Amino acid sequence: MAPQGVRVRTTRFAIMAVLTLLAGVLAEAAFAHAAPAFRLALLADAAGPAAAPQAVVSGARAADFRALATDAAVPFSRSTGRWLRVALASDWSAASPPLLVLRGARFNTVEVYAPPDYRPVPLALTRPASDPRFSRGSLVRELPADLRAGQPIYLYLPPSPNPARLSVAVDALTHYLVRDLRHVRLIALLTSVQFTMVLVGLTLWAALRERLYGYFLGYITPQMVYLLIVSGELYELPGTDLAGRIGIRALWIAAAVSAPFALSFILAFCDLRRMTPRLARLLAALRWPFALLALTAALLPMAWIQRWQADAGNALFVLSSLTAIVAVALAWRRGSVEAGVFLLAWIPQSVLTALVAALLVLRQPLPAWLEYGHLATLAFSSLVLTVGLGLSTLRARRERDQAHRLAEHDALTGAYNRRALLARLAAALIDARQSAQPLSLLFLDLDHFKDVNDRYGHLVGDACLKAVAEAITAQLRAGDTLARWGGEEFVVVLPDARPDVAVAIGERIRRQVAALGVRVDDVPLELTISIGVAGLVRGDDSPEQLIQRADAALYRAKADGRNRLVLHPSLVAMVAA
Known about the structure:
The chain is of the alpha+beta class. The chain has helices spanning about 5-30, 55, 175-210, 210-230, 240-245, 250-270, 270-275, 275-300, 300-305, 310-335, 335-360, 370-410, 420-435, 450-455, 460-475, 500-515, 545-560, 570-575; strands at about 40-45, 65-70, 75, 80-90, 100-105, 110-115, 120-125, 140, 155, 165-170, 440-445, 480-485, 490-495, 520, 525, 530-535, 565. Strand 12 (about 480-485) and strand 13 form a beta hairpin. Helix 6 packs parallel to helix 10 (about 310-335) and helix 11 packs antiparallel against helix 12 (about 370-410).
């Protein structure tokens, strides 16, 4: 079961996302203004030579146009081109010139025939910008400032397999520039978020070289390219001529390349192979169809793939998304915090992506809130997942530090173990030689400890060992090292300690242990400890030699009656001096 705190935070984030989306819709309505009235008509039969541009533009087919609602979205036809006619309901009288604004063409080209010369001007998302004043949020053509009522503007929609519906509007230049600036700001914000997350992912991968960060980078980098393609801003960058020439194929490639990395990232980030092994195997298998789609989109002729590529990709996306959401939800229910973070990041993106895919399949227009909302969820997903990666990295670091501590410390007493002692003693010897400072060593052994274990049991013996370790630690200086050598034996490394200082510390420890109030069944248990002291004598002393001399001094303390401290003979003269 997932922690209650994670569920509460997830619910709060979901509410914030809904409120943000609602605020965007309200803001769009707040900035709306009354557009100039115009009339829209569609040529009833656009096939054959009679629909040639000259015949249409000259007015010879004027009677064959049929009126449409001005808010109608006209779909591109797979088999034939279509002609639209736009005309103002009244003479243009605004201070700024009129603009013809076309939305929803996506990767299709629209040819505009406008007065005064009715010369065809092709407009497309992927073509070089015809007017640098405008972004690529819409296809825009400035019209004459003296445009009269009924004066026609013709639009030709070539045959296209791409599911798109064209919306037409006429707007004043000043009004459109205000809205276009808002569009540019929003796209710049979303792109900046995505680009920043890509840099973060690249930095993490370069620094840590872990596969998870490589998956994340492979996931969000094509996703950023997807955002740039959909917004049209990719085609403003130098060196993107090829992407412009291949049109919608670039979008398919970006989406198909991102998907296998996304599934690999989900498997690793949410630990699905352990949490939900069966669904994890299905997700792992779904990566290969996406890779095949990316390959076919890049290599096969457009005529071969245009009829099934988009539908196959959408179906595969729906299947993989549903499988991933179910698997991640199960992992979250089973306690994975990372799975909860991923649900928060991915559900809004998946829902809006599914809506976009459904409307495209049904050849329905995309409302502005859905277009912007979809792009916003891509950036939101990258941001949340980057934060989740950071939290996961911190947790992994804490676990690593904890494992490192467990590997170096005795589990019962918390003191260093023998292996860690030897490493620290070797380092202390090097420091002592380089700085010409003394170094002392205490070897300590509890007296008659076997009798304690035999009489009272190992649980009491363990309690005594912990109490003794605490008593020793209480008498040590900062920088001293306590280690459990084994059983009831301890070793203390005393850097920068002369033999007399070591003796003083050892005597304090001996008295502290003797005064311990360990009780068994309310009966005080008397503990004593014997101590051997050794120190650095020669410059080539090794850790093993120091321990051997301290152990020899300890053996003498035991032989002399226990509960005493004995200095190794090599240090006696130094203390006497």
